[in-house]
Amino acid sequence: MITRDIPLDSMQATGALGQRLSEALQVGDALLLSGDLGAGKTELARAVIRARAGQPIDVPSPTFNLVIPYEFRDLLITHFDLYRLEGADDVMELGFLDALDDGSVIVEWPDRLGDLTPSEALRIELTAVSDRRQARVSGPAAIVERFLGA
Ligand SMILES: Nc1ncnc2c1ncn2[C@@H]1O[C@H](COP(=O)(O)OP(=O)(O)OP(=O)(O)O)[C@@H](O)[C@H]1O
Ligand SMILES: [Mg+2]
Predict the structure, then answer these.
(1) 37: Cβ below 6 Å to ligand 1?
(2) Which of 18, 95, 112, 115 would disulfide-bridge 82, Cβ 3.0–4.6 Å?
């Protein structure tokens, strides 16, 4: 496991991180976005999805739908918000494992995954300090380096 800290001093910085992550994203990848309410999980997910789309498509928070799929020519990205779920049984019902088989997943509140947490995931913990954000990226070295460079 390795860790990298990335300052997100502006929305542009969040957009740039989203762009980098989207370029490396492939089938089977899981981006696990943790952090408090309002820390910037949805904003980062939006940046990844828009970068992959190549245009500023509508990317609503999945707070109510819980799961929103984005089907692109070369990749399915499924965006989950697990905040209101109780645990792994609910996650199974949302089709989490199928989404991971068929494409990549971006997950807000990944602590709800329990035993379903993918071992090869890229974890991104977001923190808000006044109007700034910070991303702590961690995971197996090969995965972190594939997304962020060596
Ligand atoms: N650099 C930044 N990166 C991301 N968000 C930022 C940044 N600076 C300010 N913000 C603001 O922080 C808020 C982040 O909200 P967002 O919906 O992404 O949070 P969240 O972590 O998904 O919360 P929730 O747990 O409720 O889903 C937005 O209002 C956004 O405008
Ligand atoms: Mg959110």
Answers:
(1) yes
(2) 112
pLDDT, tens digit, 9 for 90 and up, residues 84-134:
998 889 999 999 999 999 999 999 999 999 999 999 999 999 999 888 999
Domain ranges of the chain: 2-148
Long-range contacts of 137-144 (CB under 8 A, 24+ apart): 137/3, 137/4, 137/5, 137/6, 138/1, 138/2, 138/3, 138/4, 139/1, 139/2, 140/1, 140/2, 141/1, 141/2, 144/2, 144/3, 144/4
Q: How many residues does the chain have?
A: 150
- Nearest atom (ligand 1) to Cα of 109: 25
CATH topology of domain 2-148: Rossmann fold (3.40.50)
Ligand 1 close to Cβ of residue 59 (< 6 A): no
Sign of the C-alpha dihedral, residues 98, 120, 103, 124? positive
